[in-house]
Structure formats: structure tokens, C-alpha cells
Design goal:
There is one protein chain. The protein contains 4 helices and 11 strands; from the N terminus they run αββββββαββααβββ. It is an alpha+beta fold.
């Protein structure tokens, strides 16, 4: 149960961002550029109720949010995070999420952290994310650190594969 207005707002911002990324996935599928799916959270149903309501429990550690294949056959895996603060900390990813992203990167997949800082979206290669301390000298990133990774956004969609400026 969420017990504060701030936590509820953060959850809502994260869900809205994730939904916009899902819309981007649908558009990339329509364009023939990629097939990428949202990975559901691992949970089990404990008790079924009336009207489709149930009580559940998480049964595994969270994996990255999205996984799929780019046109040409290359795998892609991605975690999404959103904040209204002026920075995003490296430790917003769980150890499991970080380990999975690195494992995919190590076998040649495209591994990313797709983030939003104050409603500005960025697709950050996982290698940059994992080496943030060495690159930036700190374990957080601010919008000005990520200009080259800024991606396009429409009202309802994050175009996470379409960078605004050349890298």
C-alpha cells in the first residue's frame, strides 16, 4: 500500500513514462523496425475475488522492463525509470536488473536504460550507465550530462531509438 502523496505521484509518473515507451514499441513494430515487448512482473495469485479482483505476491526479482529484437536480428533489452528531480541516481536499478542488462550487453545485445528527467527522455547505453562514476565522477546523472542520448517524444510516445542529436 502506498502511504504518501509523493510515492503515489512517483508511481504515476513512472507508469505514464512506461506507457509512452510501450506506445513507442507499438510504433516501431508498425514501422517494421523492432518487435519489443513489456516484460510482466513475476507474481503469483494468492486469492481470487469477485469481479476479477485478486490478491497477489511477487515471486521473483524484477527483470528489465522491455525485451525484443531489432530489425536485422539484434536483441534489445531495456529498463525504464522516470523522475521529476533534476538528476537520476545509478542505484535506481536493482542488482538483478543491472546484472541482466550487463549479461545481455556482454553477448552483443543492445542494452539500455531509458529514463526521463523532468519529462525529458533519454536512452542511455548500459555501458555508459554502468560506468557513470568513471565517466562523470559521480553515481548520478543530470540532464546536461546526457544531451547526446536525448530522444524524441510526442504527446503519447517515447521514440527511444530516435536520438535528437547525433552521438
Amino acid at each position: 500500500m502506498i502511504n504518501s502523496w509523493g510515492a503515489l505521484r512517483s508511481l504515476s509518473i513512472g507508469k505514464d513514462f512506461e506507457s509512452a515507451v510501450e506506445n513507442g514499441c507499438r510504433q516501431y513494430a508498425l514501422d517494421g523496425r523492432a518487435i519489443i515487448h513489456k516484460i510482466p512482473e513475476p507474481f503469483t495469485c494468492i486469492k481470487k475475488g469477485q469481479g476479477g479482483v485478486f490478491r497477489g505476491r511477487f515471486i521473483g526479482k524484477a527483470q528489465p522492463d522491455f525485451c525484443g529484437t531489432l530489425k536485422g536480428g539484434k536483441a534489445i533489452v531495456m529498463e525504464t525509470k522516470a523522475t521529476q528531480k533534476d538528476r537520476i541516481c545509478q542505484n535506481v536499478l536493482t542488482k538483478t536488473q543491472s546484472d541482466v542488462l550487463m549479461a545481455y550487453h556482454n553477448i552483443g545485445a543492445e542494452a539500455f536504460v531509458c529514463i526521463s528527467i523532468q519529462d525529458n527522455p533519454y536512452t542511455i547505453p548500459y555501458l555508459y550507465w554502468s560506468n557513470m562514476h568513471q565517466i562523470l565522477g559521480r553515481k548520478y546523472a543530470m540532464a546536461e550530462d546526457l544531451k547526446q542520448y536525448r530522444v524524441k517524444r510526442t504527446l503519447a510516445m517515447i521514440r527511444f531509438l530516435d536520438y535528437e542529436c547525433k552521438k
